[in-house]
Amino acid sequence: MSSFSAKPACFKAYDIRGRVPEELDTDLAYRVGLSTARYLAGKEFVVGRDCRLSSNELCAEVTRGLTDGGANVLDIGQCGTEMVYYTTFARKLDGGIMVTASHNPMDHNGMKLVREEARPISGDSGLDEIGVMAIDCDLVLDCPPGTVTTEDVLDPFVSHLLSLVDTSDIKPLKIVANAGNGCAGPAVAALGKHLPCEIIPVFEEPDGNFPNGIPNPLLPDNRAVTADRVRLEGADLGLAWDGDFDRCFFFDENGGFIEGYYLVGLLAEASLAVHPGAKILHDPRLIWNTINLVEKAGGIPVMNKTGHAFMKERMRLEDAVYGGEMSAHHYFREFAFCDSGMLPWLMILKEMSTKGRKLSELVSARQKAYPASGEINRRLQNPNAVIDRIRKKYVPLAEGIDNTDGLSIDMGNWRFNLRQSNTEPVIRLNVESRGDPALMAEKTAEILALMDA
């Protein structure tokens, strides 16, 4: 590689992501491992990988870089991202690296990095520096190499999850579990052994060829398989995960996809039942339902900028018990403030069982009280000009304006958030109203027309 003081193109705001091998190859993977060991001056690291076809060789080179940097490595093999988080905090290691591209296209891969206590390493907390070091680093080794140990941590990981949720009340529900040929299948099966539920696996075998499409349940085209299977089986619940299973998506007993916004409210309520009066973090995109539920339950809602690094940092600062984003990232104080794609469904099973209500019944009143557009993305040539145009139209009439993350405008009986993505060249729009779905739809169309003008 050429030597210059700039980070590689695959170093993004929160993690490393790029095409293999054009943007991320084995040489860069080695340099990331070596630079991480040197940057953190750590001696004990965990590495894991998803099931992508390029993950094995990239992980091997990351490991070689870490050990050449003098670090000892615990290789936990194929796993989910939260298993790297878990191992980092449970074993009190100096850091961890997960090789994954989650829901990105077939020819992509990437890495998620954490330091001690599974604290995220993102652009402004060390990732940029590691990127520059990876380009410029001296490959002359100046310390004895570390060692590599392999271990399967699935059983202790499952035991830890089960220690955080009282599953004794869970009823024998029927669950469709679509792993999308990502890494969720083995973890779901291991948890299922401890539950009275009938779990119907779909695409449970990890397969980096992704014969049934990239595991990304946010894409409407990818939801039909889970929804149809729920209806076919007469299941109580449908679940689907992305490739590294740090996000879990829910379908009710009718096969209806439940927007992540309403899950944040449910999980906030469940968390406050165990930790009365606690603080709950939420993102600024859709807020009214969450604030209403948290305040009714005696909790304290705290709005925070979208993005896992921002959420985790603020949760630690506030000692918040739970944090939720409508994009299906759910963070838990008892899981070292990290996001998990396994804890949410265990908690929802408990909610359904103890309240004796179907998932649709748990969310229907909330959907009616605060109808929402769901996130709508637009690729625009001049996003700043579009945002300025929308700002000028609505700000003079607004009851409230907030710039925590993008532009949030409260119009009294409806509101919207418009923000530029940190990871993609798109603008994201979310609209909600107070009990008026027609108004919500009308205003969504109105703003989209302004965006497309």
What can you tell me about this protein's structure?
- The protein has 453 residues and is an alpha/beta fold.
- The protein folds into 4 domains: 16-153, 3-Layer(aba) Sandwich (Alpha-D-Glucose-1,6-Bisphosphate, Chain A, domain 3), CATH 3.40.120.10; 172-257, Alpha-D-Glucose-1,6-Bisphosphate, subunit A, domain 3 (Alpha-D-Glucose-1,6-Bisphosphate, Chain A, domain 3); 260-358, Alpha-D-Glucose-1,6-Bisphosphate, subunit A, domain 3 (Alpha-D-Glucose-1,6-Bisphosphate, Chain A, domain 3, 3-Layer(aba) Sandwich), CATH 3.40.120; 376-452, TATA-Binding Protein (2-Layer Sandwich), CATH 3.30.310.50.
- 37% of the residues lie in helices and 21% in strands.
- The protein contains 14 helices and 21 strands.
- The protein has a 6-stranded mixed sheet with strand order 1-5-4-2-3-6, with helices on both faces. The chain has a 5-stranded mixed sheet with strand order 8-7-9-10-11, sandwiched between helices.
- The radius of gyration is 22 Å and the shape is globular.
- The protein starts with 15 loop residues before the first strand and ends with a helix.
- The mean pLDDT is 96.
